Every structure is written in structure tokens, then in C-alpha cells.
Amino acid sequence: MSVGARAERSFRGERLRLRIRSAQTFGRRFLGRGDGVIGLAILLVFAVLAIAPELFVGALERATTGSGGHLRPPTAAHIFGTDEIGRDMLNLTVHGARISMTIGLLATLITIFVGAVVGIVAGFVGGRLDNVLMRVTDFFLVLPTFVLALILAPVILDIVGLEAEVLGIRATLIVIVIVIGITSWATTARIIRSQTLSIRERMFVDRARAIGGGSGHIMRRHIFPNVINLIVAQSVLTFATAVFTETTLSFIGLGDPRAPSWGQILSAAEGAGAPGLKAWWYIAPPAACVVLVVLAFTLVGNALDDILNPKSGTRR
Amino acid sequence: MGGRYVVRKLLQAVLTIFAIVILNFILFRMMPGSPERILLRNPYLTAEKRAEVRHAWGLDLPILPLTVSVDPPAASINPDNQLFHYVGSTFSGDFGYSLKFRGAPVTEVIGSRFWPTVILIGLGEIISILVGLAIGSLAGWRRGGLVDRIGSGISLILYSMPYFVIGFPLIIIFAGILHWFPTSGMLTTASHYNTVLDRAFDFGRHLVLPLATVSLGLIGGYSIIMRSAIIETRTEDYVTTARAKGLTDMRVLRDHAFPNALLPMVTIIAINLGYVVAGAITAEIVFAWPGIGTLTVDALATRDYPVLQGVFLLLSTTVVAANLVADLVYGLLDPRVRS
Amino acid sequence: MMRVPGSDPAIEPPAGGPGEERIEEPVDAATLEAASIDPRAATGRVLGRRQWPLPKQADPDAPLLAVENLRTHFKLQRGWVQAVDGVTFRLNDGEALGLAGESGCGKTTTALSLVRLLPSNARIRKGSAIRLYGIDLVPKTEAQLRRYRWREVSIVFQGAMNALNPVRRIRDQIAEPITIRLGEPKDRALRRAGELLELVGIPRQRGAAYPHELSGGMRQRAMIAMALACDPAIIIGDEPTTALDVMVQAQILELLERLRRELGLSLILITHDLSVIAETCDRALIMYAGKVAEEGPVSRIFSAPRHPYTQKLLASFPNIRADRRALDTIPGSPPSLIDPPTGCRFHPRCPSAMPICSEVVPPETVFADGVRVACHLYPPGTDGARLISVEEVLARRPASGAVPAVSTRPIATGAGAAGATDAVGAAVDAASSEGLSA
Questions:
Q1: C243 touches chain B (CB under 8 A)
Q2: What pLDDT was estimated at residue C407?
Q3: C-alpha dihedral, C8 to C9 to C10 to C13, nearest 10°
């Protein structure tokens, strides 16, 4: 074995040790945040529900397969009551977890991907490109994105058609995902850019450039690992927003009645006049789930942000 | 405030609104077959009549000022085109005609729904800014104290609730069970008022629950942001100076930390306006408040695109204007920007 | 350079002197209560340039400031940081004391402990005493202590850009403590703010400016004017010139020097720049790792440093009069104060360390020239050194030979004059004659 290879190996070993140690510190600091841990616990529960709803409540009930009476309050057979067409609310709510969380996840992926790429490129390349990208970002920041989503969604739906499916997911849901993605990447881009700028100023990038790495190489090997913390924290916070936005969009009628997300259920409840009929059981389960999930993501996101974001670390 | 600062901000706002108008046009053109599909549904229309209508609506003009074709390679400049017409008519206040309301001008349709929403959002903003900033300041200043733990807890929960989720329990409790307030609408239907006061009272009763919903929905966010802004100021040197001067804790907060923490809030409140509008839309649905929100949802359901576009244009212009105002107010509040 | 004005009985003004006459229409009830005149104060012990009555509990025989066995510790997750651990010193009226040492040695913590401007995780340990005119500030509650802040002890912070509130006018920030601490009406406070600005060489119209509109040197001047606002007993300068460029540094030091001469300020100057202390202070206190290493008259400390740390510190600093090529560095860095070295805290870095140094905390010894050292190189008996107790440190008065003529003080402008503004007015003339301007 050559000396170089051995040095390389020991270097790798050292790096691995460092990684493990920093992971340990991170774990300790996260566990020290009571709110973050509570949030994480809530998220785990919902993740399990979202992955295998059938395991807990059987197949999703449809209008034709409703198992109970119409708009009945909770009973032993239907502990969350039933909706106006006889579907079990527990069944609907648990299945809603899968739909809401899937949309949230996909929307987050798009948002973070676009935001991170724009942020890193703008921050690293700088100059005129940075200027152009930031003008576009500012435009999207000022734009009332939700209202834009309102007109984007039906337009896209009319183009692709209501019944279309993309990768087995119904087009209506994809539209919501895309709309959330298009309209919420700007904040992420801003945050990542400012972090990239400060990293670029640091010595080791100059050194990497001096050694002769290309821009792409530097961005991937030097900038990205340093903004990944920020990206993680930002993703979690974006997830909260995405679930929130999905719920709102579905509520005002842009959802898919055949894929009842929590917002869709609440929209149906509103349509059936549940609040006026004091049918609280129709509203409370999906509403509580939305609030719990958004709250949990926010708690975890804030905890991560405090631990991982160098700019919030200075707070006493 | 420097004149150049004002001019720059004004220019940015105008450019943004211009971009929004163009975006609006592009979205409109993206729709399949539209607008001809809607205009020319009548199958018995003769070709001449069709051409006449197309001409009357300007649909025979090229869409963009610059037409480029690849095969054969050619480019032509069209001074008379649909984009210019659209931009021109939009800026002259012509937003087109509603498809649903029997061809009523969009401006009229929106105008009739404008004030209810302005009242709802305006009052909601005022209430929630006052309450939110107060809670946030106290919570951040006494971080970990009683106000912080209770206030921030409630704020976080409110922050996680879509407006309509806040509205539902309010309806069930205060309208359904207690019968204190009506469930929906802005005025009791088919009622006769003896005096203006009676009318105002009825309006007020209808306003309470939607207003409470909007306010509660906003308080959480404002108090959380204010809290972290105050926490940032706590470690600033000028706060130490103020403490060294022997100011009471509350006075340091009021005279030194708060004015500085307020600066970022001005911008955030303006940027937030877009989300407020979104939230207000859902709150209006829950309470059947006859504002822009319910109009939007109706338009969505019937695919009344001219109205949707009008709403988008109105709301985005409002938000841009609010941001402009915020920038100018920021300039007034922060001497560093002012000079 | 070596003036130690102060407490020599021979220079006291007569009874009923300006210290009492200048009291005019004080002040809100709370301040009055704290400040009602002690009859003994009228004998004028701590008069100096003081415009305001002494607090009620003041002891006329006590030194201006006596810090006794101060221990300020910070609680961290890993344990307690012993940032200041058993510091004892005395500040006489009209004296300038320089606090020096590497960063992290506890100088700033020592100074900020005086009026307890400490972060929330800091504790001043039992057994510490901070006596201002004999009044112990350590047991005071936060509300009680507030009366002493700025009124008795004000601070010129490092980096006035951050220490001044960016969104408030300079004159309002100067007037603020005058209205709050002294209960003056707003217009009079603003007028006095204008006078103070001129005193430090800023035209009073510039008071309408915001901090960012002033240059760095001007901001620091404004900060000094603010520190003078309530005519405090002690002014702490926390690295007041560090953030400035050399030219401005010199101007600010000159200003401090002039104000000290004209107003007879009692000054605690914190700096790592020993040349600043050499030029401005009467006595120097060298700290290392939260403890006093050496303390004494500036002339002695700089000409004959005894503690190895002082020697190293002096050697590591460029001196205009010395050969710059021979700059020395101190190997290693200050120790962790969570788990400080046993014995003498300097021993791991000390060139003259002996076996005893790592085992026994060196006692403080005093020499005939008034220098106090904590080092095993100087056991009692060497060079006439003898052990010195805390009580004795606090009882020592400056050598009488060091006391300058008292005429440098601006107090005596006659009875019936317009209060606090008089001394300022007199000094303004001096300021303008020096040609300082924006």
C-alpha cells in the first residue's frame, strides 16, 4: 500500500470519526429541545399512518362503500362518527394522512430543489446572473403566490384534463404540488443564497479554486455540504407550509373529491353544512390532524434551524 | 428620505405591476382554445360572423409584438398586437367582462365585493398587529417566562391553524350553541332597518365572528416573528447601553428594543399581506361573507376566468402597493435608510 | 502624567462647598430618597467634581470605590466559568485606573460587575463586595441598583456604532439618562445634551444626527458625552479606542485626558493596549485568568514589571520608544476558566515556573513602592516584600507624593451658579479654544 493511499485512508477514517462525533452532538442538542422531540414524535405517528393506512382502518371508504348512517355523531362502531354519505370519519381521516403528507412531501421536494439550485447558483456565480435571478425571486416574493395558485391551478387543470394521471398520481394532486412548488421556492432561494455568499467568502473555496476545481465541482463539493444543514431545516419548515397550503387549496375547491386529503374532507364538511348543523365530529378529526402536523413540522423545523443554522446560533 | 430611494422603490413597484399584467395575459393565453372557445361556442355561427367577432375582439391580431418562426426562418415585428391591446386596456381600467354575471364588467363585479373584504382584512390587521406585537414583545423580552410559555404556545398553535379551521369552532360555539352571533352573511336577509344605527348594529353582529377568525389567524404569526425580532435585539450593544443607563426593563424594551425590532416587522407585515388575503378568502367562505373571497371561489367553480384574472390583478397590485408603502414607511422609521 | 488627585485631607474644599450648593431642584421622589444628603457628606470628603448629593448611606470616610474579593462566575452547561475570581482593588476619587490583560482575562466582567450589567447566567458569589462610598452594591436588588447606574457609574463602550441606538437621535440618547436618572424636564435635558456635545468637541447642532451619520471618532465622542450626562462618580471606558484608527484613537485619548484634567473624572480604563494605560492612567491593574497578577503606579509597573506575566505582556507590545524588532509573544493561550490550572493560573505558560507554582496559589505581596504582586517569585521578605491582606489593599491610600495640585478641578465656580451646566460651560470654552470641531 502506498503512503498516499494510506494517508487517504486515515484521512477518510478521520473524516468519518468527525462526522460521527458531529452527528452525536447534533443528536444530543436535538434531544435537549423538548419541543422538537414532541414534534418529531407526532410526525412519526402520522408517517406510520400515511405509509400504511389500510393496516389500521381498512380500505378507503367511498360513497358506495360507506359503512355507517348519514352524519351520525361518534358511536362505539364509528368512534369519530360518519359523514353525510355514511363514510367512517376515522377511515377518512387516516387515509387523509397519506394524501396530505404525500402532496406535502412532493411539494417540499420541488420547492427545495428549485430554491436550493437558484440560491446556490445565484450566490456562487454572482454578477449579472445573480442580479437576474434575484429580481425574479423578488418578484415571486412580492407576488401574492396563493392568489396566483388560485388561477394557475384551474388553468393547468384545464390543460391536462381532470382525469389525467401522472406516474399513477391523479393530475389534480400533481397540479396542487406544482402550484405550491412554483409559488414558494423564492424564500428558500433567498436564504440559501445568503448562506452561499458567506461560504464563498471563506478561505477554503479560494483554495479549492486555486487547486483548479471547476465551478460545478466547487458548488457540489464545497458549497453544497455547507448549506445542507440549512436545506434540511428549511425543508422541514417548507413541509409545514406545503401541508397548510394544500389544505387551504383543497378547502376552496381545488382538491380531488376522490382523493380526500384533510383539506378536501373539510371542504366536504363545509359543503354539507356541518358547522351550521353542529356536526363537530365531521370537522374536528381532519382539522386536528392538519394543526398537529403543521405544528409538529414547525416545532421540528425551528429546533433544527436553531441547531443547524449558523445565523440563529448566536442567540442566547 | 432621499429622493433617489423613493424613485427607485416606485420604479420597482411599477415594473412589478407591469410584469404581473403580462403574466396575467400569458396565463390567459395558455388556456386551451380560449378565449375563442368561450366566445364562439355557437355552432351555427357563419364563417363571416365568426371573423367579424374575432375582429371585434381583436383576436385576429398577432399575439405578441414579435413573431418568430423557425421554418421558414423569419421574424416579424407587429406593432398592433393582442399583448399591447391587453396591457393598454388593463391600464385604462378595462378588465373585461364576467362570464358568469351575464357579461357585467369585471370592475363592477369586483367593486361590489371590494369593501366587505377591505373592512374584514383592515380591521383584522389592526387588531392582530396590536395584539401580536404586544404578545411577541413581552414573550421575547422575558424569554422562557410565563408570558413566553403561554403566549408563544398559543401563538404557535394559532399559527398552525388555517383560518377556516379557526372559524369552524367559532361558528359551532358562538353561533350554533350560544346563538350570540349569526352564522353567515353580512346583513340579515330581507330585514328592514329603521335607522342607520340598526343597520350598523346588524352589520357589527355579522362581522364579529369573521373578524375574530381573521384576527386570531394573524396574531400567531405576528407574535412569533415579533418575538424573534425582540430576542435578536436583546443581545445588541445598545440594549446593554440602555440597561447601563439605569432604565427599567420595560423602558429598555419600549424605547430601545421595540423600535428596532419594529423595523423588520413593517416589511414582514407587507409581505404577509398576500397570505392574509389567502386566509381571508377561506374565512369568507366559512362565514359566507360577501367579499372578494367568496367571489373568487364562485369564479373558480364556474371557471369565470376574467373575474379570476381581475381578482389576481387587484390583489397583486394591492400587495405590491403595500410593499411599496412598507418600503417608504421603513425609510421613515429607519434613519439609516432615510439619508 | 502622574496625577492622583483625590482624598488628601489637605485639599478638601471647605464645608458647605460646591458639593452641596450645586444641588438644585432635584429630582423625582425615588432619586431623592436614594440621594438625600448625609450631613457628614457636607464636610466634603468625596467632593471632587461631584454635582449631586451623595446617597444617604454613603460613608464619608470610605474610598470612592472598594472592590473586595470579587468573584463573578458564569453558568454554562459544562460548568461554572470562573471569569473573575477574587479580585480586590480600590479606586480613589479623581484617579484613573487601567485594567489590562489578554482578552478573556476578566477585565470587562470585573468592570461590568460594578453595576451588575451581566448576562443572566452570571452570578456574583458570596463574599464579594463592591463598595461605592462604602455602600455595598452586591446585595442590592435590581431596582435599587438602577439608581446607581449611569448616575454613579457610567460606561463608554467599545464600538459606539453598536452601543448607540441606531434609530434615535444622538441628543435624545444623551438626554435620556438626564430625564430619567435626574428627573430634569425634557427641554433642560436637551440643552445639557447640547452642552455636553460641545464639551466633547461636537457642535451642538450635530445632536440632531443619528449615529450612522457621524464618523467613528465622532460617535465615540458622543458616547463620552453620554457617559458624562449625569456627572457620574466613575466612568468606565471599555476599550474605548479599540475600534478606531490610530489618528482618531489619539484624539479620543486626548479628549479623555483633557476631560479628566478639567472635570477630575474618576476613570476605570479597560484595554489590552498597554500604551493607552501608560498615557492615561495613574495606576495599572494587570489581570490574568480572572485574578490580579500585579497592581501599582503606572510608572513602576511599566519601568519595573515584577510578575512574569506583566513582563511578557509589556514585551509583547510595540512601544513607540522601544525597538520594534524585539517584539515578544506569550506562548500558549489563556486557560479555560471552567477548570483553571491549580496553583498559580499562569504557571503552564510561565517561563519562570517552579514546582510550587502548580500547587499553591501565590499570596499577594506588596513592595515599598506600592506595587502589589501575586507571584511565588516574590515571597515575603524578598526586596522588602510583605504579605498584604484584602483589608490592607482597600485601606491603602495613594502615596502622598503623587497627589497633584487640586486646582485642575473645575468645581469652584462660585455659589448660585446654574448647577451642573457650569462646569461644562467652563470646559466648553476650553474645548472650543482647542479648536476641536466637526
A1: no
A2: 30
A3: 110
Q: Which residue of B has its CA nearest to C116?
A: B244
Examine the pLDDT at C415 and tell me if it is beyond 60.
Answer: no
- Tell which residue, C423, C397, C435, has the closest CA to residue C92: C397
Query: Rounded to an integer, what distance in angstroms lies between the CA atom of residue A141 and that of residue B271?
Result: 7
ipTM: 0.79
Cβ <8 Å between B335 and C167: yes
Distance, CA of B34 to CA of B63 (rounded, Å): 13
Q: What is the CA radius of gyration of chain C?
A: 21
How far is B127 from B98, CA to CA, in rounded Å? 35
Does B35 sit behind a cis peptide bond, omega within 30 degrees of 0 on the bond before it? yes
* Minimum Cα–Cα distance from C236: chain B residue: B244
Contact between residue C424 and residue C188 where contact means Cβ atoms under 8 Å apart: no
The Cα B98–Cα B109 span in angstroms is 8
Residue A104: C-alpha distances to residues A150, C116, C352 (Å): 17, 50, 68
Helical segments of A62-144, H only: 89-125, 127-142
Distance (Å, rounded) from C-alpha C166 to C-alpha B163?
38
Tens-place pLDDT, residues C256-304:
888 888 887 889 999 888 888 888 899 999 999 999 999 999 999 988 8
* pLDDT values of chain A reduced to their tens digit, one per residue, 316 residues: 455 666 666 767 777 887 788 888 888 888 888 888 999 999 999 898 888 888 777 777 776 776 767 777 777 777 777 777 778 888 888 888 888 888 889 999 999 999 999 998 898 888 889 989 988 888 888 777 677 777 777 777 777 766 666 666 677 778 788 888 887 888 889 888 988 888 777 655 566 665 666 777 777 777 777 788 888 888 888 888 888 888 888 888 887 777 888 888 888 888 887 777 788 888 888 899 999 999 998 888 888 888 876 655 433 3
- Please spell the DSSP secondary structure of C20-84, one letter per residue: HHT--S---HHHHHHHPPPGGGGG-TT-TT--SPPPTT--TTS-SEEEEEEEEEEEETTEEEEEE
**C-alpha distance across the termini of chain C, in Å:** 28
Which of C155, C167, C213 is closest, CB to CB, to B333? C167
Burial of A170 (0-12, 13-18, 19+ CB in 10 A): middle
Give the closest of A147, A151, A251 to B164, CB-based: A251
Q: How far apart are CA A266 and CA B164, in angstroms?
A: 9
How many Å apart are CA B279 and CA C121, to the nearest integer?
42
Q: Go through B36-61 and write b for each residue having 16 or more CB atoms within 10 A of its CB, e for each that does not.
A: eeebbeeeeeeeeeeeebeeeeebee
Name chain B contacts of A290, Cβ cutoff 8 Å: 160-162, 165
Q: What residue type is assigned to position B189 of the chain?
A: T
Render the burial of C229-250: b for 16+ CB within 10 Å, e for the rest. bbbbbbbbbbbbbebbeeebbe
Q: What angle do CA C65, C67, C68 make, to 5 degrees?
A: 140
**Would you state the cell numbers that stand for residue C428, as one nine-digit string?**
466648553
Q: Which three cell numbers stand for residue B273?
A: 399581506
In DSSP terms, B117 is beta-bridged to: none
- Residue of chain B nearest A295, judged by CA positions: B160
Question: ∠ CA B102-B104-B109 to the nearest 5 degrees?
Answer: 115
Contacts 24+ apart (CB under 8 A), B16-20: B16/A139, B16/A142, B16/B320, B17/B316, B17/B317, B17/B320, B18/B87, B19/A139, B20/A143, B20/B312, B20/B313, B20/B316, B20/B317, B20/B320
Report phi then psi at C341, rounded to 5.
-60, 150
Where residue C383 falls (left for φ over 0; alpha for ψ -120 to 50; beta otherwise) is left
Q: What's the gap in Å between the CA of C143 and the closest CA on chain B?
A: 8
Collect all residues with Cβ–Cβ distance below 8 Å to C338 and sequence separation of at least 6: C76, C78, C79, C80, C81, C82
